From TrEMBL:
Biased composition (Pro residues): 342-353
Record-annotated membrane-spanning stretches: 52-73, 127-152, 230-263, 275-297, 303-323
InterPro entries in UniProt: AI-2E-like
Membrane topology: Multi-pass membrane protein
Superkingdom of the organism of origin: Bacteria
Subcellular location: Cell membrane
Annotated family: Belongs to the autoinducer-2 exporter (AI-2E) (TC 2.A.86) family.
Region described as Disordered: 331-353
Protein name: AI-2E family transporter
Keywords on record: Cell membrane, Membrane, Transmembrane, Transmembrane helix, Transport
Length: 353
C-alpha cells in the first residue's frame, strides 16, 4: 500500500515538474539565503526591506553568474568539443598500440558513440545552452523568483499555517523537521558552492600555468560539475585531460590527471566532511543512486536536486523514526558472522552452596 502511494505521488510530481522543480529550487535558495535575511533584521533593518535587499542581491548575483557562464562557454563550445574528440582519438591510438590487447572494432565503436553524442546538437543544447532558450525554463525561472520572494518574506507564516492543526509530539517533530530542513539545504548549497569554487580555481589555475587552451570554459564547467557530487567535477576533469592531451602532449595531460585526482581526493576526504559537515551525511552509494534516479526523472536538473533532497529525506527519517538500537550494535562490532545482533552475554556460572 505504501509503495503504491509512493509511486502515485512520484508520478504526480513528475507530471507537475514545471511547478515542482521551481518550488524545490526556490526552497533550496531560500534555505541558503535565510541567514542573510536574519542577519539584516538583527541589525535593525525592517523585515520587508531586509527581504528585498536579499532577494534583489540574489537575483543580481545569480543572473550575473548564469550570464557569465553562458557567454564563457558558448563562445568556445565547438572548439572544446573538437579538442575533447581529438583527445579521445589520441587516447584510442595509445590504447591500440599499447601492451594490453583490446579489440580495434569494439574500441572504434565506443569512441564513435561518444563522439556522436558529444558532437550532437542535442548534447550541447541539453547540457549547456538549450536550457536557457526553452520557454519552459523561462517560465520556471519566473516561478523560482516569485516563490523565492514569498519564502523569504513570509516563510515563517507559511510554515506556521501548516503547523496550526498539529499538537504535542507531532508538532514538536514538525518544528524540528523544519529547522533541520533549513539547516541541511542551506549548508549543502553554501558548502557545495564553496567546494566547487575551490576545485574550479585550483584546476583552472593549473590549466593556465600549463598553457592548456580553453582554461576558462573548462574551469566554469568544473564549477558547475561540482554541484553533482562524486561524478560531476571528475567528468569535466576528464575533458580537461583530453584537451591537454591534444594541445600539450601526454606529459602535461598526466600532470592535469594528477591535479584532478588530487583535488577530487581532497574534496571527498577533507573538504566535503569539513565544509558540509552533517549536511551531506550520506554514503557514496546512496549519493550515486540518488544521482541516477534524479537524472532519470528530470535530467541534469534532477541530478543536481537529487542529493540535497535525499539528504533532507534521510534527516527527516531520523527525526520521525529514530533508531531503536545503538549504531554499534548493527555496525559489526562484537557481532557473529552472518548475525544481525552481537553475541549475547555468556550466562553466569551456577553457584554452588
Amino acid at each position: 500500500m505504501l509503495l503504491t502511494a509512493t509511486v502515485v505521488v512520484v508520478y504526480g510530481l513528475i507530471q507537475l515538474k514545471l511547478v515542482v522543480i521551481p518550488l524545490l529550487i526556490a526552497l533550496i535558495l531560500a534555505a541558503a539565503l535565510h541567514p542573510v535575511v536574519g542577519f539584516l533584521r538583527r541589525r535593525g533593518v525592517p523585515g520587508a526591506l531586509a527581504t528585498w535587499i536579499t532577494f534583489l542581491a540574489a537575483i543580481v548575483v545569480l543572473g550575473g553568474v548564469v550570464t557569465g557562464i553562458v557567454f564563457a562557454v558558448r563562445s568556445e563550445w565547438d572548439e572544446l568539443v573538437l579538442s575533447a574528440v581529438g583527445g579521445l582519438e589520441r587516447l584510442r591510438q595509445f590504447i591500440v598500440a599499447g601492451p594490453i590487447p583490446i579489440g580495434q572494432k569494439a574500441l572504434d565503436e565506443a569512441i564513435t558513440a561518444v563522439v556522436d553524442f558529444t558532437s550532437s546538437p542535442q548534447f550541447g543544447a541539453g547540457a549547456l545552452l538549450g536550457i536557457f532558450a526553452a520557454t519552459q525554463v523561462i517560465t520556471g525561472a519566473v516561478l523560482v523568483a516569485v516563490i523565492l520572494y514569498f519564502f523569504l518574506q513570509d516563510g515563517a507564516k507559511i510554515w506556521a499555517f501548516f503547523l496550526c492543526r498539529f499538537h504535542g509530539e507531532n508538532l514538536e517533530k514538525l518544528l524540528t523537521s523544519g529547522t533541520t530542513t533549513l539547516h541541511v539545504l542551506g549548508g549543502y548549497v553554501r558548502g557545495t558552492a564553496l567546494v566547487a569554487l575551490l576545485e574550479a580555481v585550483v584546476i583552472g589555475v593549473t590549466l593556465v600555468v600549463l598553457r592548456v587552451p580553453l582554461a576558462l570554459p573548462l574551469a566554469v564547467l568544473i564549477f558547475l560539475g561540482g554541484f553533482i557530487p562524486i561524478v560531476g567535477a571528475a567528468l569535466i576533469g576528464a575533458v580537461a585531460v583530453l584537451v591537454a592531451l591534444v594541445a600539450n602532449g601526454p606529459v602535461v595531460a598526466l600532470v592535469v590527471v594528477a591535479v584532478v585526482v588530487a583535488i577530487n581526493q581532497l574534496d571527498g576526504r577533507v573538504l566535503q566532511p569539513m565544509v558540509l559537515g552533517r549536511a551531506l551525511s550520506l554514503h557514496p552509494l546512496v549519493v550515486l543512486l540518488a544521482l541516477a534516479g534524479g537524472a532519470i526523472l528530470s535530467g541534469v536538473v534532477g541530478a543536481v536536486l537529487a542529493v540535497p533532497l535525499t539528504a533532507v529525506g534521510w534527516a527527516l527519517i531520523q527525526i520521525w523514526f529514530p533508531a531503536s538500537r545503538a549504531p554499534d550494535a548493527l555496525s559489526g562490532k562484537n557481532a557473529r558472522p552472518g548475525a544481525v545482533l552481537p553475541d549475547p552475554p555468556s550466562p553466569e556460572a551456577p553457584t554452588t552452596t
